[in-house]
Amino acid sequence: MRNPGDGVRLTDEQRLDWLRLIRSENVGPRTFRTLVNHYGGARGALAALPDLARRGGATGPARILPREEAERELKTAKSLGATFVALGEPDYPARLQMIDDAPPLLAVRGNLGVLARPQVAIVGSRNASAAGVKFAERLAYDLSEAGFAIVSGLARGIDAAAHRASLARGTVAVLAGGHDRLYPAEHADLLDAMLTDGAAVTEMPFGWEPRGRDFPRRNRLISGLAVGVVIVEAARRSGSLITARFAGEQGREVFAVPGSPLDPRAEGTNGLLKQGATLVTEAADVIAVLQPILGHGVDLPAQEPDSDAPGPLDAEPGGDERSRIVALLGPTPVAIDDLVRLSRTSAAIVRTVLLELEIAGRLERHGGALVSLL
Description:
- The chain is α/β, with parallel strands linked by helices.
- Among the domains are: 109-293, Rossmann fold, CATH 3.40.50.450; 319-373, Orthogonal Bundle (Arc Repressor Mutant, subunit A).
- The chain has helices spanning 12-22, 29-39, 42-55, 67-79, 130-145, 158-165, 188-194, 214-225, 239-249, 267-274, 283-293, 319-328, 336-343, 347-359, and strands spanning 82-86, 105-110, 119-123, 149-152, 171-174, 199-202, 228-231, 253-256, 278-279, 334-335, 363-366, 370-373.
- Helix 6 (158-165) links the parallel strand 4 (149-152) and strand 5 (171-174).
């Protein structure tokens, strides 16, 4: 794992620029990386956004977060004891840094040191059974005693049980909204108790009320932080299964606790076991799988480039090239490699056109290097 002190810290001005860029319209984590790599930093990317949006066919000007709003958010963060940790900085969680859509900035409250420890996610049903809650508590306590930080989503049921059982050793809550918009509100006392030895993290802005679509986005961070994910109880359409899917896509280990075939809360976990998840009846089952993995270090820094030289977007698309690429796109996701082949243009030109469309709000990116037109 990365040693404390490794990596490069952003200056205050760079951090402000990063915040403005990631909060600007149609800029997600993947697009952020592309822009920063190409334009040599966030400031250059901010200057380029209006022209990119225009070339991509935006119906109006690109909405760029004003400097005043970014300064206001930084001030709010400081007043709440939150810190913005940037991708590539020493305090950024090493395993989260490995995923291709890692947040450029992570707002953290609490003990930053807990993020440097190996983490195991424990998630499950909000409407948990008494047996499920008891098992989650025992598993979280035992894994915590073994040196793992427990990460979960602060939800009712299994999540809250896992957090409570690992309070003394440090537990991490991933929030779906801003730090000042806690959901569920009834867990405010639990979160306060966590912040001494543990932490709360989110990529969402302060003041952001979590909506339904924000919870899957949060779930990818739960799995991204962890070495492995344990699903204790999950119905067929449970959000915990989304976390398990993200874990598989991110190369994390997936564990499931078996349950009665008669209990609908075990339908999802039993299904995961059929699909190859590791069966868990005690903490030793998890530790046996994760110990060999933890023998390998992780160090994937992604700091702001020092060079002003252009990155991967070094070609200006011609009108015909742009038209050919757009014509190949539709609502069905298509591989970027196929766009390069079918459009008979270079990969650099395809990337440029896709970036223009994304900044214009016309493109959606999917896993596996797939894109579709909105």
